[in-house]
Amino acid sequence: MTVTDATNPTRRSRTIARVAAVQALFQCEQSGDTAETVISQFIRHRRVSSTALFEDGHIPDADLKLFQEIVLGVTRRQDDIDTKLSGVLPEQWPLPRLDPVLRALLRGAVFELIATDTPDRIIINEYLDVAHGFFSGDEPKMVNGILDTLSRSGNDGNT
């Protein structure tokens, strides 16, 4: 996945934070490690010099505050987030059936929709970009539809 936006380094650092948060949430689910443990590992082992390559699994220039906020927020509010997601997922695609990376991505996005003051349209666009980086099939369309539905349903986020 290539994340470049030379005209807006802040956007790039926030996008990298979101990608890293999806990876960290995936790691938490797969390994059973706590959010704090995974965050520590990411900061120690993946955040190296700004010359490190994102494509090599590093998170140079990531907005660490946002990264930590998403990972901790999702793990602390996962039951609420999963309830919201389950309410909008197609019946044939219950949450446990989703690809674990897709599940992590949706959880991160839903957390931001319900718990931050970032406008919904920015969150949806950012996570749609992240989805395109991880998936080449119909998953980005699914992400867009789910997040748009949640945004329109009055999710306690900002429209």
UniProtKB/TrEMBL annotation:
One of its GO terms (molecular function) is RNA binding. The keyword RNA-binding applies. One of its GO terms (biological process) is transcription antitermination. Keywords: RNA-binding, Transcription, Transcription antitermination, Transcription regulation. One of its GO terms (cellular component) is cytosol. Residues 16-152 form the NusB/RsmB/TIM44 domain. Pfam families: NusB. The keyword Ubl conjugation does not apply. Transmembrane segments: none annotated. Belongs to the NusB family. Involved in transcription antitermination. Required for transcription of ribosomal RNA (rRNA) genes. Binds specifically to the boxA antiterminator sequence of the ribosomal RNA (rrn) operons. HAMAP family: NusB (MF_00073). This is Transcription antitermination protein NusB. It comes from Gluconobacter albidus. The lineage of its organism: Bacteria, Pseudomonadati, Pseudomonadota, Alphaproteobacteria, Acetobacterales. The gene is nusB.
